[in-house]
Amino acid sequence: MLRKAAFHDYPGYVPTGAHTDANNTHASRWTHLGHCVDILLQNIQCNANTEVITLAWVEGRTQPWPDFSVNRKCRDFEAIYKWQLENSVDAGKFDRMPIPHDAYVWPAPWENRESELGEKLGKHQKQEGVLGQAGHQHTKRHE
């Protein structure tokens, strides 16, 4: 969703799914994008790279140049993706999933709350997209 939001006006791109859903309010879209960015930030911070980047002298430079040709051992993305496909909830079943009679129903994340799903909101959450709040908002342009 983050890529689609960032490049929504890319030539030839036609938004689908959450971008065309009439029930996807502006506030919920901002909340969703905020989560996307927060998950990426957490991943970067929690898995910080501590590899040493060596420097080498190269022709035409008076300072050493970083050698980015580091060999890394990556996770098998295809295996992870295959596991996710085999173990995810069927989208049709998800859409028809009934709310259990004894379920606690949390307040909507895009409402002006101090917490989300029981967790205090971090400093990154500024109530983006919620009009009238002290966060990000758009104003109409007069023609």
Verbal overview:
This protein has 143 residues and is mainly alpha-helical. The chain has helices at 2-6, 26-46, 77-87, 91-95, and strands spanning 55-56, 65-66, 115-116, 119-120. 29% of the residues lie in helices and 6% in strands. A two-stranded antiparallel sheet has the order 1-2.
Characteristics:
mainly alpha, single chain, disordered C terminus, two-stranded antiparallel ribbon, 6% strand, UstYa-like, 143 residues, 4 strands
What's the short version?
This protein has helices spanning 2-6, 26-46, 77-87, 91-95, and strands at 55-56, 65-66, 115-116, 119-120. The protein has 143 residues and is mainly α. A hairpin with an 8-residue loop joins strand 1 and strand 2 (65-66).
Radius of gyration: 22 Å
Order of helices and strands: HHEEHHEE
The portion of residues assigned to helices is 25-40%
Structural class: mainly alpha
The chain-level mean pLDDT equals 74
Topology:
Layout: H1 2-6, H2 26-46, E1 55-56, E2 65-66, H3 77-87, H4 91-95, E3 115-116, E4 119-120
Antiparallel strand pairs: 1-2, 3-4
